[in-house]
Amino acid sequence: MRKKSAVTIGKFDGVHLGHQRLMERVQAQKKHGLETVAVIVAPPPGERSVVMPMEQRIRLIKETGIDQVAVLTLDHQLSQMAPGAFAEQILLNRFHAAYVCAGVDFRFGRDRRGDMHCLGQLGLKCGFAVEIVPSLMRDGRKISSSWIRECVEQGDLETAARLLGRPFFLEGVVQPGNGLGHRLGFPTANLIPAPEQILPPRGVCASRAAVDGTAYMAVTNIGRRPTVTEDETVVAESNLFDCGRSLYGKEMKLELLRFIRPEIRFDDRESLARQVRRDIASVKAYGWMRNPL
């Protein structure tokens, strides 16, 4: 017989401070001998404008100490399931829930008819306890993934970091570029962001990169490089300070700490080089080590 579980459920986009509170409530149930499970409800493939790709969500949730992370795709069958069937077939039969917690705004079942009050009633019928976890507030507003998306897309990376409990970041394998940065004296490590992930406005950010366990202060340009190419691919190009080695093919985590300026089309490469030097000076004046990687 499978062990009973303490379950939390939601989209968990960003795994922000509010989501972390849910993980803490589930973890508290371990003292009752329950396995801990986080269930991510994901839309069908093609989701766009997310704070964090699914692989990153799963990894960060596991890092909180949750025993199991499961992904439920919100396909037609799941979206048309009656609330009672969802509670019985998914929470009880599939995840063996003895305890379920979610945020006050969680909705489930056909036409999103199930709310947390409904889930509490279904829990009594199915034999699992339900805890409604109040929203976590900052500055009089509920912490939410939509607020974080708003902050990032407006370039307010510092507020986004306060809501996430960590800096907003990109991850990927360093790609070869066209070599222009190296010729200008500012070699870059280039990442192509996940197509579904939100980005700050095109432009330059103070950033911090981690490669092979080493952190580097950096200046990052996010955009389509209007001065040097007509390529439409969005690239995050980072000049890592005091890094004299090739990073091609390396996994890199890139934290975006502060938006400095919007993307500019320069008349020539000399003007671009002068601006890059000014950007580097601006980033070096930023207290980049105050937030841990």
Q: Can you walk through the features of this model?
A:
Helices cover 30% and strands 28% of the residues. The strands form three sheets. A six-stranded antiparallel beta sheet has the order 8-13-10-11-12-9. Strands 3-2-1-4-5 form a five-stranded parallel beta sheet, sandwiched between helices. A two-stranded antiparallel sheet has the order 6-7. By secondary structure, the chain is α/β, with parallel strands linked by helices. It contains nine helices and 13 strands. It has two domains: 5-136, 3-Layer(aba) Sandwich (Rossmann fold); 167-290, Elongation Factor Tu (Ef-tu), domain 3, CATH 2.40.30.30.
Q: What is the name of the CATH class of the largest domain?
A: Alpha Beta
Which regions have little confidence, pLDDT < 50, spanning 5+ residues? Answer: none
Write down the Rg. 22 Å
What is the molecular shape? elongated
Overall average pLDDT: 91
The CATH topology of the largest domain: Rossmann fold
H/E element order: EHEHEHHEHEEEHHEHEEEEEH
Q: Quaternary state, please?
A: single chain
Number of domains: 2
Give the terminus-to-terminus CA distance.
41 Å
* Strand percent estimate: 25-35%
| Largest beta-sheet details | 6 strands, antiparallel
* Helix run count: 9
